[in-house]
Structure formats: structure tokens, C-alpha cells
Give the backbone structure.
Amino acid sequence: MREFTPSAATALAAAVFFAVPALAQAPGGMPPKQVGVIQIARQDVPRVVTLPGRAVAASSTAIRPRVGGIVTEILYRQGQSIEAGAPMFRIEDTTYQANLASAEAQVASAAAQVTQAEASFNRTQQLLGSGTTQAQVETARAALDQARAAQQSAEAARTLAEADLAWTTVTSPISGIASVTEVSVGDLVTAGQAEPMATVTQLDPIEVDMYEPSSRFLAVLDDINDGSLRLNDELGATLTLENGRTYQAVGELVAPGVTVSTTTGSIDTRFRFANPDNLLLPGMFLRGQVELGVTSAFLVSQSAASRDKIGNLTAWVVQDGKAIQRQLTEDGSYQNQWIVTDGVAEDDMLIVDGLTGLADGMDVVPVPVTFDENGVVRELAPSPAHAPAEAEAAPADAAATE
């Protein structure tokens, strides 16, 4: 039979000494699972909705000729900024100069007729009763009126001729970016033709149409009516570009939607944004964030919640030392957190770490944690109240060791 040496007996006693507490902690198996928890509280949360959007030009015009003729010059730089009233095309004006000269001659002739008719009327009126009759005076007056009317007609024709001549230089009615020309020197254009000669598009400011489902619109109205949402006095919007970059300018509301699309069931709301660098282009797809107001709710980290197979949002809380799964009612998100209006209560201990393997009713040990600036879970440092007790315990342990 093998004899135990003193050193072997000592080792066996130590093994039993350390094994007994472990058996006392978990007579049926593993000790309770440690989970990181945070205490949640109701707070005022900005109500932000994210909507799909598309950029549209605040103003865009197709350049068409108002008179016909041969294009003789292209006067603008294609694809560059252009000011309102800047010349873009020149049309051959020989015919229109001749028409203006003829109209001016007609005005001069009409003016001479008026002068002659005025002299005749004055002379006839002076001789009334001594060689002329009242009927002759009336006839002279009618001739003068006709001469004056002819002069007005000639002046109107001259105005039209001057306009036609001016229109041989085609100008831009708005400021913006001029497109590539659709005509060349030598092309024949006609007044009011269907095909534009070019297009000028205003890019600064630019407008963005955002599309909100009518069902969400009704939900917002319900929240306003029951007092759970306090609407902002003014609505502003921010944009996220297709590459994920945040656009710096804040847009202002131009026109709220008043109709629902019969094809998409959404309401079109338009915002206007400053676009000095022409970064936003018409037709560009964007994602808009609109801050509607402030709502009273709980913020639950998206990493601490999950959705089941049918889309219900759930999270875990600690209640009486056990993990309990709760179904949440969310109303959007804010800074990577769900805005929860129902499912949790004030001061609930929300489990945010150690979620793997949890089961409803499982015994757990809550450990207070927090989130750092990067959203990583960190254990809370011991409070200063516990520091002196730990400091006093250290010398006592050292004395016991000695």
C-alpha cells in the first residue's frame, strides 16, 4: 500500500479546500452567467425620420429661338456657368434689320399724315361760319383721328420689328449651368421649334424631393394629437450621399406634400439646399434625415436588441436575478439606438453584454457597464466610496500573509 508523504497530504488538503466553495456555488452545474447591464430611463429624444430622396433642379429652362433663321454664332462656353441675360446664340439678322427700317419709315409717314391732318383741322375750325360748315369741321376731325391711329399702328409695328431684331441674339432667361449645344453654326432654326438649342439648369440652390409613406404620416399625426410628439416650429433636413458621406448644408422646407402617389402610396415633400460647389446634381438619389420634433421614450442600443422571424423587436432585462425577454415597440432610431415607446420601464436593467446563450428565466449576475465613445461596452470603474475599504483590506491581507 502506498504511503502519503507530508507534501502529498498538504497538496490533497489544498485541493479539497479550493474545491468545496466551487461545489457550493453550483451544486447543479455552472455558476450563474454574468451579463453587462445598464439602467435605462425615459428621456426626451429627437424624432428623426429617414426618407429616400431625389435631387431636382430648382429651375431649368430649354432655350428655343423666338425668330427663325440661320445660326451664325455660338456665344457661350458649353458646360460653364452663365448669368441671366447672357447671349448664347446669334441668328442671321439681315431680314429683321430690313423689317425694322421699313417699320421706321411707316412711322415717319404716319407722323407726317398726322401733321397734315392737324393743320387741316385747325384751319377748318378757324373758318367755321365764314366759309366752312360744321360738317366740314367734323370731317377734318375724323381725318385727324384716323391719321393718329395710323401712327399708333405704325409705331406698334416698329416695336415688333425691334423685338424681332433683338431676338436674333438668343439669351439665357436664368442663371445656371449651360448644357452642350444641340445646334451648330449654319443650322436653320424656326420660331418656337420643339427641339431646344440648349438647356440652362440652376444648381444653386437645389431642391430635393423626399418621399414619406402615407402610413407613417398618419402615425406622426396620431403622435402629435396624443401629445407624445412635440413638433418643431421649423422643419430642417440633412442629407447622406450615395457614397455614405454626410452633406454639410441643412435644407429648409419648401413645400409640404398634399397628395399621395397612386403608384407608391407616398407623400412628396420638397426641401431646398445650398449647393455652392454643385455637388448635388439633378436626378441624384439621396437619403434624407428630417427632425420632426421631440418625443419622450427610452433609448435601447441596437446591439442589445434583435428581431425574431416575424420582425418583432426584443431585448433582455434582469428581473429578480433572472433574464427576462421583452417585446419592444419602437418608433424609429436615433444615433444607433432604437427609440422605444413600450416594452420596458423606468430603471429597468437592460442587458447589453453577454447576450449569447441567454434563455428566458435563466439565473444571471448583473454587472454594471457603460458604452465608450466608440460604442464598445466597458465595465464601470469602482466608485470612489469603495476605494478606502479596498485600501484598508490590502495591508490586512499582507499581515495575514506574513
Summary: The helical segments are 6-25, 94-126, 134-166, 214-225, 387-401. The radius of gyration is 43 Å. The chain has four domains: 27-44+298-401, 47-58+204-296, 65-92+170-195, 93-167. The longest helix spans residues 94-126.
